[in-house]
Design a protein that fits this description.
446 residues; Herpes Virus-1; two-stranded antiparallel ribbon; disordered N terminus; 61% helix; three-stranded antiparallel β-sheet; mainly alpha; single chain
Length: 446
């Protein structure tokens, strides 16, 4: 059987090299009896390789020889074929069970389908990940200790010292999942929520909220954050803070809206809704646009608030925004407009906006079936409200031809039915010959 060919050397941290696998085992670099690269447990046993790989943060510099050619993931149980190629056992066995009689990498025909455990490579992989796992564990312990220190500091300091402590803690919470548990277990959530109130500076509030949105909040913390004074602070920062602060404020409000005791009165604020519209329209920050539209969509699920959203001019602003939105944001904006079309003032606002019909017609059959469904629903609401005025405008904008495309497409039966109904509504003010010409039909379709 051909022997597995290893690269000439691997470089370890600290500048050391493994010239070959045999030398690595002989010199004790690999985990074994007293190898320097192994990681012992309480009883001197190795930590499970799979556990180390799962717990480690994504590692980008994994040597290519450790990667299974099939899954492109580090191997836990490497086995070698008769061709000399090595694979993760489960992956190659699945390949063989599918009836393949070739090597996946070289496409050579296999003269023997036996797989041989590559124990030497397994030891090397274990040693390599053990080294990084040790560093990871030590760093994790260090940052957890520092996080605990910062929480104690926050109980004592004020002013700029408090801001600096919060900044450092926020970076640690964002970058280390272990710190999130430390903050929660040390009573940090209650401490952070206590920092928010009517007299909190925006500098402190911004950092505290930036931490809270990265933690798992329980019902008690949620109820605390829904106090009017705290919500008022969040709304102020959403209107006046940096783009990161604004996004974090939307994330916090969205988290609160998922709580079972949430009340729609909490988001029934003209200042909040106006701030979200400014955020959604800010072309300099696409992430802000996404955050603003996402929260507006969630708020629209509360029917009581829809009238307020219309009152801040959201309909015309969103309609005018449609041509400038990327595909991933269009569905959000159309969903909001569709929700607003369910109330009388929303339908009137859509009708009175001169860009509603042309922009909605343009989006039919252009982005996705969901976008087509929302655009069609909006057009139906407008044309049904004022058929003599709006149906003619829609036909002139090319609606009839688009509706025929929907009817002939693979869209859902509901969409096709609504298209047929809207097509019939639009045809009432035209003779058959004139309407056919408006549809811009080809001779074949006619």
């Amino acid at each position: 059987m051909p022997q597995y060919q290893q690269p000439p050397s691997w470089r370890l941290e600290g500048g050391g090299q493994i010239l070959d696998l045999e030398t690595a085992v002989k010199d004790g670099i690999l985990g074994g009896g007293g190898g320097g690269g192994g990681l012992g447990g309480a009883a001197g046993e190795k930590v499970d390789l799979k556990k180390m790989i799962e717990e480690l943060e994504p590692v980008e510099d994994v040597p290519s020889v450790f990667i299974c050619p099939i899954s492109l993931e580090p191997m836990v149980d490497p086995v070698t074929l008769c061709t000399g190629q090595t694979y993760e056992r489960s992956n190659i066995l699945k390949w063989l069970s599918m009836g393949h009689l070739t090597c996946p990498t070289t496409m050579q025909e296999l003269w023997d389908d036996a797989v041989t455990p590559n124990r030497t490579l397994h030891q090397l992989i274990h040693a390599w990940f053990s080294q990084r796992y040790l560093h990871f564990k030590k760093r994790s312990e260090d940052v957890q200790g520092r996080a605990a220190e910062l929480l104690e500091t926050l109980k004592k300091v004020k002013g700029q010292a408090r801001v600096q402590a919060l900044k450092e803690l926020q970076k640690m919470v964002v970058n280390h999942s272990s710190v999130q548990n430390t903050v929660a277990d040390s009573g940090g959530i209650a401490l952070l929520t206590s920092l928010l109130g009517p007299f909190t500076s925006h500098a402190v509030g911004s950092e505290a909220i930036g931490i809270l949105v990265n933690l798992s909040l329980d019902s008690e913390a949620m109820a605390n954050l829904m106090q009017p004074a705290k919500i008022s602070l969040v709304v102020d920062m959403l209107n006046e803070g940096t783009i990161d602060t604004k996004i974090n404020c939307t994330r916090l409000i969205e988290m609160l809206m998922g709580e079972k005791d949430f009340r729609s009165e909490i988001v029934s604020s003209l200042s909040l809704l106006a701030g979200l519209m400014r955020l959604a329209k800010d072309r300099r920050h696409p992430n802000g646009t996404l955050a603003g539209l996402s929260l507006l969509k969630t708020i629209c699920s509360h029917e009581r608030v829809r009238g307020l959203i219309v009152s801040v001019g959201a309909v015309s602003q969103l309609v005018e925004l449609l041509p400038n939105l990327s595909h991933e944001y269009l569905e959000l904006a159309l969903r909001i407009l569709d929700d607003l079309s369910t109330i009388p003032e929303g339908r009137v606002a859509l009708k009175d906006c001169p860009q509603t019909i042309p922009n909605a017609v343009r989006l039919l059959m252009r982005v996705s079936e969901s976008c087509t469904r929302y655009a069609l629903s909006i057009l139906w609401a407008v044309c049904k409200l004022a058929p003599d005025e709006c149906a003619s405008l829609a036909v002139e904008a090319g609606l009839a031809a688009k509706l025929l495309l929907v009817i002939q497409s693979g869209c859902s039966p509901e969409l096709k039915q609504r298209s047929a109904e809207l097509l019939k509504l639009c045809s009432l003010n035209y003779t058959a010959t004139l309407f056919i010409s408006k549809c811009k039909l080809t001779r074949t379709i006619q």
